[in-house]
Please model this.
Amino acid sequence: MIVDVHTHVYPPTYVELLRRRTTVPYIRNFEDAPESARLIILPGEDDPATPSTSRGRPIGAEYYDIAQKVAFMDMHKIDASVISLANPWLDFLPCEEAGDAARKINDDVEGLCAKYPGRLYAFGTLPLSAPAKTVVKEIERLAGLEHMRGVIMGTSGLGNGLDDPALDPIYEALQKHEQLIFLHPHYGLPSSVYGPRANEYGHVLPLALGFPLETTIAVTRMLLSQVWDRFPKLNVLLAHSGGTLPFLAGRIESCIRHDGHLKKHGKTEGRRDIWDILKTNIYLDAVIYSEVGLKAALDASGAGRLMFGTDHPFFPPLEENTKEWHSVNANYGAISKAFGNNEEAAEQVLGNNARRILKLSP
Amino acid sequence: MIVDVHTHVYPPTYVELLRRRTTVPYIRNFEDAPESARLIILPGEDDPATPSTSRGRPIGAEYYDIAQKVAFMDMHKIDASVISLANPWLDFLPCEEAGDAARKINDDVEGLCAKYPGRLYAFGTLPLSAPAKTVVKEIERLAGLEHMRGVIMGTSGLGNGLDDPALDPIYEALQKHEQLIFLHPHYGLPSSVYGPRANEYGHVLPLALGFPLETTIAVTRMLLSQVWDRFPKLNVLLAHSGGTLPFLAGRIESCIRHDGHLKKHGKTEGRRDIWDILKTNIYLDAVIYSEVGLKAALDASGAGRLMFGTDHPFFPPLEENTKEWHSVNANYGAISKAFGNNEEAAEQVLGNNARRILKLSP
Model:
């Protein structure tokens, strides 16, 4: 059984919302290419100074037509998918609109899942620009929807990052209702870090590095603010195999233990360390495109905490007339190489973990 | 035989230079603690708005007294060390001062090595704020100094990053004289990424994440600008096991292959890929503080390209009255765990690789 835990949709309600907008994020057809709709979502992505990325990416029916999702699953032998709204979710909405929009989109996604019994589940979307109590109410509502298995969340939280104590009521509600957070990047890094020639490299630096580095920073800030000491049963699934967390965990732990300021305030001891949290609260997807990265993720969290994903509909086939997705096969290939003859562990990662952890009954 | 390839000094010439300065980087004794000199080197580190880090770190004789370096080596059973000036090197000097300063510091360091025959070697420092021809001249001069085995370099290059075509004459000279670059971070990431509570976390975020993420961005920019296609014999030793490069290599390669802009310009094919460069031009130190990270570094580059390091004199013993360095033992421990019973591979990483690659004759 194969389950994809990292696969996105822009349901019709959300596509309409993006079509009505004229600033990032938005969808539009440019006058010189009226037949091709473009999705422009990343911060600064419509900057005319960087023409290599200023028109985002083409958006077709694979982004919003659920039948295409299911056809993709069939082609790549995926039995069930846990779909999630893609970035930037509702982070950008005025606070008074967020609660309503979240309800509509979650109901829309729940409806899509209901069309394909046993094949589709979902992570819900939270109205994070609304007051915390509105967010908590939506968490409670999501807990009652048949196909919801947690929430997808960016790194901004209520606007001040995931180490913001104002998130505590939200973490508490998620813990209480056993709703997992699927933590996903969107904001990347300030473009200055990519230097004056970034325009020559298309989307490579923000996608290949900005995304995973953003995730790593966000989760390390959660660790440093001791979120998991306060909420020991809060579970988080990290996108892209944790950003770079498995690789850097040793350095992070060492820097904490050696830090003069933390030592002075008694904060280097008496806390749950990163390895404990990696093996108790954190799950990792297996979207890392190489055996090297996948084995590090496996070493950090254990085979029982890794779950296959595709990142569909991003990273489509390399050639227009190719059906199979190279990106998906790279992730399948990494699993088969990393596990060699250990079929049981490979099956855990491919689907059995997701079935158990997310209580799927396909 | 054990060789430490990542170990820093601030030789007397450089300490004097920092003592004369009043803006970052500098060394000073504060009026309310006159007995304790402080080293303040990181960008924005003296910002009074972040008191947890605004006085940098204590600096003692372990930073500049070479006898203390050798005593440290003896205690931790290190036979030979390849010392390098610590960050921020000479990046901040006015161009007319850089050439002279580099010569003095390199001669100073060469003299320190000569005091301990067979035990000390060095990576030289380049005057990167001077014109390229001054830099090239110093590379040529370094090639003739008995103990020099390459150069240490930050990620700024001539001010525009390591993907700057203006660096080509410098890369050419380094390749010609078989001088390896030890690529080391200093600038980190813009502080905005650490959020409004960064002050509570001391130096953890800039050191544990800013440093390795900076290295990863720098080396990926080199890759994208095809430095190694132009200079196929240019060798680079990456600090901190490559930042996060081994873990992210698969994602970087996948993002290159999928990039619309690169594809349009025919740049996804006909280039040396990241795995080729990892196994041909890149060496990694073993300063990663965990078995998980070390194994990923090993998987990415092979046991013949990994070299032990300590980062001395940073990350000193955890307790004042302890002699052994926890940070050093964490790196030793990672090697012994990662290699298990494969003593030959462990010996390669501990010293034999460095002896061969850097042509040491201890």
